[in-house]
Amino acid sequence: MKRACVGMTVGTFVVAATFWFGFSAQGASWQEEPAAASASKALFNSRCALCHGPDGHGSDMGKTLKVKDLSSKEVQSLSNDDLIQVISAGKNNMPPFKDSLKKEEISGLVRYLRTLK
Ligand code: HEC
Fold it and tell me: Which InterPro entries does the record cross-reference, listed alphabetically (predicted)?
């Protein structure tokens, strides 16, 4: 029984890793898929707007946590990798999302952030 559990854990990891790398390799095709774009918007509204506001300028709660305006030059001048890093690992009052969002969901959010400026 124990052995089977370990096997399943490893199996799940391999599947997840394949998915992860598969997606980053073809990441650029996203823009041609409006369904993915609206999914990222919905994800932003459900997971990020609480602090950042639906337009990225910051909700009242976000402002007390000192969020930055996501449409600002300061945030928009960060590279995609930096944005992925902040969303994955968090920063000060910003919680990490690497355990609750998939890699491709995070890169979808970064593309969504680029539409806010
Ligand atoms: C609990 C509130 C909260 C939630 C939810 C939240 N953030 Fe943040 N976010 C913050 C705070 C606070 C900062 C400012 C961090 C700092 O620089 O001190 C921030 C900063 C950022 C930055 C700018 C980073 C930088 O280096 O300037 C980005 C981009 C960002 N958040 C994206 C997101 C995305 C995308 C989501 C949803 C997946 C999200 N945030 C959810 C609070 C939140």
Answer: Cyt_c-like_dom, Cyt_c-like_dom_sf
Predicted TM-score (pTM) of the model is: 0.79
Q: Give the pLDDT band of residue 36 (cuts 50, 70, 90).
A: confident
Atom of ligand 1 nearest to the CA of 91: 15
CA nearest ligand 1 atom 24, residue: 86
- CATH number, domain 34-114, options 2.40.50.140, 1.25.40.10, 1.10.1740.10, 1.10.760.10: 1.10.760.10
Taking the CB of residue 1, how many other CB atoms lie within 10 A of it? Answer: 4
* Nearest atom in ligand 1 to 65's CA: 12
